[in-house]
Write a structure and sequence with these properties.
By secondary structure, this protein is an alpha+beta fold. The chain has 2 domains: about 45 residues, no CATH class; about 70 residues. About 50% of the residues lie in helices and about 15% in strands. The chain contains 5 helices and 3 strands; from the N terminus they run H-E-E-E-H-H-H-H. It has a 3-stranded antiparallel β-sheet with strand order 1-3-2, covered by helices on one side. A hairpin with a 2-residue loop joins strand 2 and strand 3. Helix 3 packs across helix 5 and helix 4 crosses helix 5. The chain is elongated, with a radius of gyration of 18 Å. The chain starts with 6 loop residues before the first helix and ends with a helix.
Length: about 120
Amino acid sequence: MASPVHPLIEAIQPIADALGASVHGAERVTEADLPLFWEGELVGGLRRPDLHDALDTLLLAVEREIGILRSEMDRAQKQEAVALLNEWGAFTLRKSVEDVAEALGVSRFTVYNYLERAGGD
């Protein structure tokens, strides 16, 4: 029988999922993890997401935030998606404009226009 999951681990799991991170029990915590303490006792660790998947994670978060799949977004929703991605720092990643353009089914030029519009609001 598996041991019960600590309440702190259960509480943090949805946050970790949304960020593309993972939560591990105390027995699997490494030095690279963010330790999770409960009443002074190490109960687990939060493992940072692999940045190779960061943009995909952010694109999925945009779909959840806006409430519609990228493939079904209209122009206004795509503009909102680009604005959110910009707020979240997605465009600091290498080749992100090209990748976001492809994911949204628009041109790089269009993404730059959406970014300019988002900056003007």
